[in-house]
Amino acid sequence: MSLEIAMNILSAATYGAPATTELIRATGHSATTVIHYLDELELRGWMTRLATERPGVGRPPIVRRPTDAGIDYLRGAEMGLFRKLSGGGARILWGPVRALTQWRVPFIGRPDIFADRPIDASPFPVTLEGNPAFYDEPLTTDDGTFPALESLIAWAAKSGDPRRAAASAVLLRDPRLRADRVVERAGRMGARNRVGFLAALAGRDLDLRHPPLERMLESSVPVEAETEALARRWHVENPISAALVKDMEQLYGGRA
Questions:
Q1: Where are the alpha helices (DSSP H) in the chain?
Q2: The pTM of the whole model exceeds 0.70
Q3: With contact defined as beta carbons under 8 Å apart, do 198 and 169 qualify?
Q4: Own/partner pairs for 110-115, CB < 8 Å, 24+ apart?
Q5: Three-state DSSP class for 212?
Q6: 124 neighbors 112 (Cβ within 8 angstroms)
Q7: pLDDT over 70, % of the chain
Q8: How far apart are CA 20 and CA 26, in angstroms?
Q9: Which residues pair with 239 in a beta bridge?
Q10: Among residues 77, 150, 153, 207, which one has the fewest Cβ atoms lying within 10 Å of its Cβ?
């Protein structure tokens, strides 16, 4: 049994693709391979079938979920692969999903990694971040190595993703944040105005304003008049709305 294929199927099933047809799409393996591995994983006690009802005409879907033993195996395999990738020459950190969750803003999805160059990290999706500043002073834990809080804030602010930018605003209220370091990191990562704008939305004043215009999102979205005026003061184009930040703060703002 290939460890890579087993991890890929277990990972897809753990993080949101329980039906066999969904697993085939999510993993990219052939139907024959997926079904063979599902049977093998079930025999090993790492997956179990769930009772399902027929949605209409035809057979009911076959749904399998990892058992506790299967999840333990997956976690161990993920850490083993992460350590192997960390020793391969590229700079590696846990990616957006695990990093945001580590810093108490949980995102749902398959684990991914940050890397400073293109690498084969299957089954982990790879988020490329080539700026050396991002990898400075990482957080090292028993569960692996994560971006520093200030690095993650700057990265999320310039990610172009509205939910990640809103998460950056929530993280800017974290009491563990070092203001001097986030100013330094935002400057080195080219996100001074975006981080400053998000800090203002979060009620935090940081000395970050810089003349060049920075674009937060690829295209504009509806925002409040006050938010639009604040974005102009911070030289930020296509900002996220204050309402999105407020919604995310209500979900996660008290978890730091």
A1: 3-14, 20-27, 31-43, 68-86, 96-102, 149-157, 162-171, 179-188, 192-201, 225-233, 242-252
A2: yes
A3: yes
A4: 110/11, 110/12, 110/15, 110/16, 111/11, 111/15, 111/78, 113/82, 113/85, 114/147, 115/85, 115/90, 115/91
A5: coil
A6: yes
A7: 93
A8: 10
A9: none
A10: 207
- One-letter identity of residue 243: A
CB 128 within 8 A of CB 117: yes
Q: Supply 20's token pair.
A: 């066999």
Please give the C-alpha separations between residue 66 and each of 18, 38, 145, in angstroms, as whole numbers.
9, 10, 26
Q: Distance of CA 211 to CAs 94, 202, 204, 229, 234, Å?
A: 33, 21, 20, 16, 8
Closest CA to 138 of 103, 173, 104, 188: 103
pLDDT tens, position by position, 191-237: 999 999 999 999 998 988 788 899 999 999 999 999 999 999 999 99
Q: How many CB atoms lie within 10 A of CB 187?
A: 15
Task: Give pLDDT tens digits for 5-62.
Answer: 888 898 888 887 668 888 888 888 999 999 999 999 999 999 998 766 655 566 666 7
The tokens of 35 are what? 């079904």
DSSP state of 122: T
> Hey, how many other C-beta atoms are within 10 angstroms of the C-beta on 226?
10
- Tally of CB atoms within 10 A around 132: 11
Only one residue has tokens 């999840």, namely: 71
Using only C-alpha atoms, the chain has a radius of gyration, in whole angstroms, of 21
- 43-71 exposure pattern, b = at least 16 Cβ within 10 A, e = fewer: eeebbeeeeeeeeeeeeeeebbebbeebe
CB 7 within 8 A of CB 81: yes
Judged by DSSP in three states, 92 sits in strand
